[in-house]
Amino acid sequence: MSILSKFRFASTVAMALSVGWMAHASDNPTMDADVSRIDSEWARIKYQVKDKDEQLKEIDALAKKAATVVDHYPGRAEPLLWQGIVTSEEAAMASVFHQLGLAIDARKMFEKAEAIDPKVLHGAVTMSLGVIYYRVPGFPIGFGNKDTARHYLEAAMAMDPGGLDANYFYGDFLIQRGEYDHARDVLEHALDAPVNPNRPVWDAGRRADIQGLLASIDKRASR
Predict the structure, then answer these.
(1) Which of 27, 101, 146, 195 has the fewest CB atoms within 10 Å distance of its CB?
(2) pLDDT mean over 184-196
């Protein structure tokens, strides 16, 4: 079994992002367009490419594209965030020999983005750090830490209480901690978020993810 078998970021990690965050334009429309293309490609690869080898090939190519966007906009948190999301997604798809190294790289990208602007894109950087800390195993295998994860995830929820992703990842974390009633409330609240017509692939995929988590809670309750 992969040491990062529970590292299902992105979903990633993931990563991010309240409903409609892409509609929140920055002061650089060219950068917004470049980042939006990374977002759209990530969603297509994650939710529509079914062959695992092809997924890994395409996500690796996208990671290289994301790196060029970061280089093109130095000092901006948004490209760094998406480079981290794509890299963490690659970690989830990669072989056991590469997963932890990619996860460490993704964390560094998120930390750089956090140092620039921890509130960028409605707290997506903060949420992404929370996700990576709960989905990566802890010591001695990895750097995961559930207390650190809870701190970041709850901070992200405070910044974006109605966000589809913020509630999804916090609900998933609560399930892993055995807090099923709280998780159900959070996940049901996530589905109240308005549908985002600008990100249809991500929106539909994430809602399916949430329904899957709710079904897992129901299954546990019926035992």
Answers:
(1) 27
(2) 94
